[in-house]
Amino acid sequence: MKIEIGQDAVTWFEENIYVGSENGIRFFPKLTRGSNTGITVGIEPAVPHQSNVNTTVNDVTYFIEEGDEWLFDYKDVHISLDREFNEPMYKTE
User: Fold this and answer.
1) Domains along the chain?
2) Do 78 and 4 touch, CB atoms closer than 8 A?
3) Helices of type H across the chain
């Protein structure tokens, strides 16, 4: 399992998520409620603690913590930018 992130997505994260001293962006399962109840990908600035799945671009580590891999079916994660909605898009293989 690995993370690949496109340059367009890297640019989006750099412009929209303030990393600060954490130097990392964590992807995790997030429960949503309302008309679209379910589980989605949460994003937060964080420091990796127990991460076997990560990649570093421009000194920022993008990672999934141990125990959260199930969200991506334990497959490789490809992150790109959905230009229609101007937000990250996740594809697994």
Assistant:
1) 3-92 (2.60.300)
2) yes
3) 7-16
Pairwise CA distance, residues 7 & 51, whole Å: 22
The pLDDT mean for the chain works out to 94
- Identify the DSSP state of 79: E
User: Is the CB of residue 13 less than 8 Å from the CB of residue 25?
Assistant: yes
Q: What is residue 87's predicted lDDT score, i.e. its pLDDT?
A: 96
SS3 66: coil
Q: What global pTM score does this model have? A: 0.91
What residues of the chain score a pLDDT lower than 70?
none
**What radius of gyration, in Å, describes the C-alpha atoms of the chain?**
13
The pLDDT value recorded for residue 37 is 74
Q: Which of 8, 10, 92 is CA-nearest to residue 55?
A: 10
